[in-house]
Amino acid sequence: MTETRDFDFASLTPRERYKLLIGTVVPRPIAWVVTVDGAGRPNAAPYSFFNCLSADPAIVALGIEFRADGSPKDTGRNIRETGCFTVHIVSDALLEAMNVCAVPFPPGVDELERAGLALLPGTAVASPRIAAAPAALECRLHSFLEIGASREIVLGEVVHAHLHAGIVNDSLHVDPAGLDAVGRMGGHAYARTRDHFDLPTMDAARFESGDWPRRT
């Protein structure tokens, strides 16, 4: 039997819990979120506490950490003000630009301008989208989940999607090579999604037959 190390989360500090979680739950998709404030000024920031939770309705979730002083970040505040946000999938080609948007610039600095990114107007929501991103999901605020003093969970309903034409076919299958998404690992590490394979799901009869599908 493989030896294990056990961790009682009740005895760990928040930082220790964070290190274990981000090193274990990998790779994590990155939500590159664009919002606008009440005056229409855009803001962009990446979040790796992110995933899609439902297709009917189409719900995505963001985990947005508060600032050290307990105040909300611009993303959370803007979503409360306007009721919308746009999630972009980060491609390998846009990794450095995304990293610029993670810089804690002082208020009033336009991260998107610093990163050299062009914006296009939103179709169904007030927040714009990053033109170069291979996929953008326009979202309306569904609800906030207050889970503690360090982070809030935002649920958004996807109401419109933009995908670069070359990466989606008429059957709505998205080409993973064209998307070329990156994900977060532990620490400062990232992972590409270029190494992938297919493994069909079995029904019970095929399992019992022993004729298991193999990865391809």
TrEMBL record:
Name of the protein in question: Flavin reductase
Family that this chain belongs to: Belongs to the flavoredoxin family.
A single MF term (Gene Ontology): FMN binding
Entry-linked SMART domains: Flavin_Reduct
Coiled coil: none
Pfam family name, one: Flavin_Reduct
Keywords, alphabetical: Flavoprotein, FMN
Taxonomic classification: Bacteria, Pseudomonadati, Pseudomonadota, Alphaproteobacteria, Acetobacterales
Occurrences of domain Flavin reductase like (ranges): 23-174
Essential cofactor(s): FMN
Top-level division of the source organism's lineage: Bacteria
Species for this entry: Teichococcus aestuarii
